[in-house]
Amino acid sequence: MLQLPDIHQQWPFPVTFNRWEATISAESTAWIESIGILSVERLKKFKGANFGGLASIAYAPFTDADQYRITCDMVNLLFVFDDLTDELSAQDVRDIAKISLDALSDWKTPRPHGEHPVGEMHRSLSERLHSVTNPQILDKFIANYDKYLKAVISEAEDRDAKTIRSSLESYLALRRETGAVTCCFNLLLIPLEIPDHILRDPRIVYLETLGLDMVCVGNDILSFNVEHARGDTHNAVIVVMHERGLCIQDAMDFVGAWYREKVEQFCNAMRDLPPCRSVAVRNAVRTYVAGVANWVTANYEWSLRSGRYFPAGHDPIGMDWIVPLIPRMKHELHQE
């Protein structure tokens, strides 16, 4: 058995949902289906995971349907892309990444006949993204997406070599990029007008990093059981096990305590925002950092209830956070 940490016991931010969820989520799911990138079996699993529910909490305040649609599309695309690349070699990921970035950057050009559907998926996303946001946000988004793709290649290289990152810090340097969470934070800016000098302020950057770490490591904690069972190594708990020579439970306890420290730091950072010269900008900044908090909440709530990590009837909250440990497949691993 495995005792999971109750990482949100002191998390003060409530769950809210976007009013467009039912309509837009259905449209976005139909879009993914139309791309033809998923097999019948994978499409069934995709629909069952309810990624629209994640987007609904993460982007709850969005009132414009077209702006909200791009956030749903992005969340759906990321999970499709993640599942696709998890099974590819590093070279195959490089090929897929090149197609993806090209399609994202050049959305006006039709994709070549016979190309992997990942190209059209990114081109189509980019076409809608260009219709709802400004050039400054687009530039941030594409630059951060490029970093994401490079990180996914690095993850695949680790996977090919059966390598585990040597330390939590080394792991986090990669993990902060492999989730594309920074790109998702960029989308929070679409309805807002915040000067670049405010977004570059160390206090905002610090808060973003805390939110980023909680989204990534929170997912690692709640997905650990299934990832460990199938031999994945890109997980904070697994890295800590090898770095510190700990058993599974002690490593999970360590990462849980680390996460709760981040919760406290994040709450303190929310009270130390940069000064703004106008009420409008001040309100926009507050909306943005609340959006970062929404992302942390969304990741936690969706990870618990989507069925992707916990089967029906195995809600860890109802089981006092004690879950059966899934037997692990045998893999030969190497330290970085």
TrEMBL record:
Source taxon at top rank: Eukaryota
Which EC number applies? 4.2.3.-
Give the record's keywords alphabetically: Lyase, Magnesium, Metal-binding
What is a GO molecular function of this protein?
Answer: terpene synthase activity
Q: What class of enzyme is it?
A: lyase
Cofactor section: Mg(2+)
**GO biological process, alphabetically ordered:** isoprenoid biosynthetic process
**Does Transit peptide count among this protein's keywords?**
no
Pfam families hit by this protein: Terpene_syn_C_2 (PF19086)
Carries keyword Lyase? yes
Q: Which family does it belong to?
A: Belongs to the terpene synthase family.
Name of the protein this chain belongs to:
Terpene synthase
